[in-house]
What we know:
Shape: globular
CATH architecture of the largest domain: Sandwich
Strand content: 35-45%
Amino acid sequence: xxxxxxxxxxxxxxxxxxxxxxxxxxxxxxxxxxxxxxxxxxxxxxxxxxxxxxxxxxxxxxxxxxxxxxxxxxxxxxxxxxxxxxxxxxxxxxxxxxxxxxxxxxxxxxxxxxxxxxxxxxxxxxxxxxxxxxxxxxxxxxxxxxxxxxxxxxxxxxxxxxxxxxxxxxxxxxxxxxxxxxxxxxxxxxxxxxxxxxxxxxxxxxxxxxxxxxxxxxxxxxxxxxxxxxxxxxxxxxxxxxxxxxxxx
Length: 249
C-alpha cells in the first residue's frame, strides 16, 4: 500500500508538471498560473500526508504486535497437589521454578530422573525444609514416593502441555501375584490404583520403578501411584492388595 501511494504521487506530480509546461507555452494570465501552482502544491502535500499517516500506522501496528508477543511469552502462575509417581515438566505441569511443600507422609523426592544421578530429598510432612525454589525444566522428571506434595510457581515457562505418548490402551486388574509386562499385560505407562486391601507393589526396574505401599481405603498409605513405566519384560509383584493398571494420559 505504501509503495502504491508513492508511485501514484510521483506519477501525479510528473503529470501535473507536464501539463503546467504545456499550459505555460500558451502564455496564460499570471493569476491562472498561480492557481495551477497552488493546485499542484496541494496535491503534493496531500500525497506526503497520506504516506506519513500510513508509515505511522505501520509503526504503531509493529509496536502493538511486539507488545502482544511479549505478553504471550510471559509465564502464568500454577499450583497442584501431587501424590506418588513420576511427573514430567511440559507434560504433567508447566516447566518452571517451584516451591514444594510436603503435605502428608514420609518418603523421598527426586528432582530429576534417578538414573541420571539427580538430587534426592528425604522428606517428612511438617519436619523437612526444602530449598525455597527448585528448578524443574523441560526434559527432567520429578519423582515422588511415599508423600503427597504441593507444587506452586508464580511464573511458569510459556508453552502448552504436550500429550504423553503411551502404547498402553487398556485397563488391567491384578490380584496379588507376580506379573511380566508384555506377557501378562501390555507394556506402557500406568497409574496403579489400589482396589481392595493394602500392601506392597514393587517392580524390578531401578531407574523408573515402584516400591510403594498402597491402601484401597487411603488411610495408612496412598491409594495410587501415577505414571509408572512398565517396559517389556519388567516384573511387577503385587502383595496383599488388588490393583488396577490404568493407562496414563
